[in-house]
Amino acid sequence: MASSSSGDAETLGPAGESQSLIPGLPDDVAAVILASLPYFHQARLRATCRSWNAFLAPRRLLPLRRRLRLPPRHLLCLFPEDPSLSPPYLFDPAAAAWAPLPRLPCSPHLYGLSNFVPVSLGPHLYVLGGSHFDARSYPIGIPTASAAAHRLDLTAPPSLLAWHRLPDMLSPRGSFACTPVPCGDDGGGGIIVAGGGSRHCMFPSEGSRMSSVEWYDVDSGEWKMGEGLPRYRAGCVGFLVRRGEEEEFWVMGGYGDYRTVSGVVPADVYYRDAVVLGMRSGKWREVGDMWEEGERRKLGSVVVVGGEDGQTPGIFMLDRNDILRYDFALNRWLKESSLRRKVPADKPCGFIAMNGELYVLTNATHSTDGSDPRRLPKKRLALEIQAYNPDKRKWRFLTSNTPFHQPIHFKTAVACTIGL
């Protein structure tokens, strides 16, 4: 490690001179220190000198972090609304810092994108599908599903950071199950999407359903059709589980059928079961009901913790003010813990897994300094986080001011994590 770092440092200085990263320290030690800097400080510190500018370049720093076997930093990527109108933001809970990302390319005909799915694969962030309105369609005001796919490379220089349009999915869809498949030694990484429909957040009781499954191959840049779900399923959640030698793609919950209330108003019939796709066999198998009739109406927000190095991940669900853990052997959701600060039933919240912890996100307001009696104290929007560690079974609380001008509407906001 020392020899490679020293070689890197020597090439960073002027021709014929040797320039160390941090004077007085060996270059291998300095490399570990600089590689451990929070993501949001790297761009600011690159202006310190030419050696730091070259060393902290994302395309160079991220591979170095993997070689040094530093723990990955997972950041929260939050989409408060349509990403073509309002930029998404990265949030680092360790540094309590926010950084804006570019907006999605804007179309003069399409607007009101919702129910899209963001997913990360390596240093790349993807935005897939969704439901939007098309000003060219008739009748106007009827949402349609989107097949668009965009990718953002976070290793690109800040001046070149922009979304790139990928080939469209074979079937337009929103509110679908999705999971990344990491690259192996021989490549082959990709993204699996399953189910979905055309439902829009403005019309919560309408929209189509579908059962098709697609696979995006990162190497070829093409979408390929896979074995479809056993039945129509939208509003579902998907994740990857390695059990022994077999990798499985799990699809839980969602809705497919519907019934009518008083013979007029359609109401969704939510599934209580799950279906599993064997990645090697290519066949689906059905898992029975995960809870009894009347125990709960539908599946809550589901996140996955762990699963690296072939270990079985922990599957957690937020059900009102309780966190439940899925037991694979019993096919049941068992209570893990309860929120320390209860969230009212009419107040939506976010639920995300990051850095081995479960984050429950809610809006909060903080009053600014009111020491001047001539001015009324102003309230600033803030994000309140209740973080739960399943291994230590302990809670901690974080609060961070947000860059948004209005509270985050977690019922329609979309979030994912990305490891850098």
UniProtKB/TrEMBL annotation:
F-box domain residues: 23-55
Q: Which gene encodes it?
A: LOC105034090
Per the record, which residues fall in region Disordered? 1-20
Phylogenetic placement of the source organism: Eukaryota, Viridiplantae, Streptophyta, Embryophyta, Tracheophyta
SMART domains the UniProt entry points to:
Kelch (SM00612)
Q: Name one Pfam family in it.
A: F-box
Q: Which InterPro entries match?
A: F-box-like_dom_sf, F-box_dom, Kelch-typ_b-propeller, Kelch_1
Protein's name according to its UniProt entry: F-box/kelch-repeat protein OR23
